[in-house]
Write a structure and sequence with these properties.
2 helices; single chain
């Protein structure tokens, strides 16, 4: 199955992540769990930059699901360019999408994934309507 970004999306963040020697597995390529760390890293850095950090006594984002499709093996040494997009804001959720490329091979997607983010009231443990500021931020 080929990963495709949604037709209507918004590029919200981009960063470079170093491939660490410890990210590799016994086969000499980046372990599949490291890709999820790269997806998490860009998602968390974007949320911090956007002022979207969770407040345990209030509201914040929770990941409802996450996925990653692997197309080409990443290997150490190198740098990963992660690009994050948002789409499909609904009442309580929005989608995030990430492409992972090497900085020395721009445009060649090595892996791509995403997550559904739900806005939650933590004390009530209930989904809440996306705040207007967040809806504006994630709407293409």
């Amino acid at each position: 199955m080929k990963f495709e970004l949604p037709e209507v999306k918004k590029l919200v963040f981009e960063m470079t992540i170093p491939i660490r020697w410890g990210d590799m597995d016994a086969m000499g390529h980046v372990n599949n769990t490291s890709y999820f760390r790269y997806l998490e890293t860009i998602r968390i850095d974007w949320m911090r930059a956007a002022g979207c950090q969770p407040d345990p006594q209030g509201e914040g984002p929770v990941i409802a699901n996450a996925f990653c499709n692997f197309y080409k093996q990443l290997e150490y040494p190198g740098q990963v360019v992660a690009k994050m997009y948002t789409s499909d804001p609904a009442r309580t959720t929005f989608e995030t999408w990430v492409t992972l490329e090497r900085d020395d091979q721009p445009g060649l997607v090595y892996a791509a994934g995403g997550a559904t983010t739900i806005w939650v009231n933590f004390p009530l443990q209930k989904a809440q309507t996306l705040p207007d500021w967040l809806r504006t931020l994630v709407t293409p």
